[in-house]
From TrEMBL:
NCBIfam families: Eex_IncN. InterPro entries: Eex_IncN-like (IPR047937). It comes from the Bacteria. This is EexN family lipoprotein.
Length: 82
C-alpha cells in the first residue's frame, strides 16, 4: 500500500512537471532577432500563440528601430562640410 502511494505521488509530480514551457523572454529575443522574426511571423499567421508573441514582437520592433536609427545617424562620426 505504501509503495502504491509513493508511486502515485511520483507519477503526479512527473506529470505536473511536464506542463507548458515558460515563454522565452524579451532579452532572449533581443539576442536572437532572427528567431524573434520567425516567431512573430508565426504569430501573425496564427500558428503561434501566447506570451512569446508579445516578447518576439517587441524584440522585432526594437531591432527595426535600431537599424533605422543607424541608417539615419550613420556610423556616429560628425558631419563636417567642406
Amino acid at each position: 500500500m505504501r509503495t502504491q502511494v509513493i508511486g502515485i505521488v511520483l507519477l503526479g509530480t512527473a506529470l505536473a512537471s511536464c506542463g507548458k514551457e515558460e515563454p522565452r523572454s524579451k532579452q532572449y529575443f533581443d539576442a536572437h532577432v532572427d528567431e524573434a522574426r520567425e516567431v512573430f511571423a508565426g504569430c501573425q499567421d496564427g500558428s503561434v500563440r501566447g506570451n512569446e508573441c508579445n516578447n518576439a514582437e517587441m524584440a522585432v520592433i526594437r531591432a527595426d528601430a535600431k537599424a533605422r536609427s543607424k541608417r539615419f545617424v550613420g556610423d556616429g562620426k560628425a558631419y563636417t562640410p567642406r
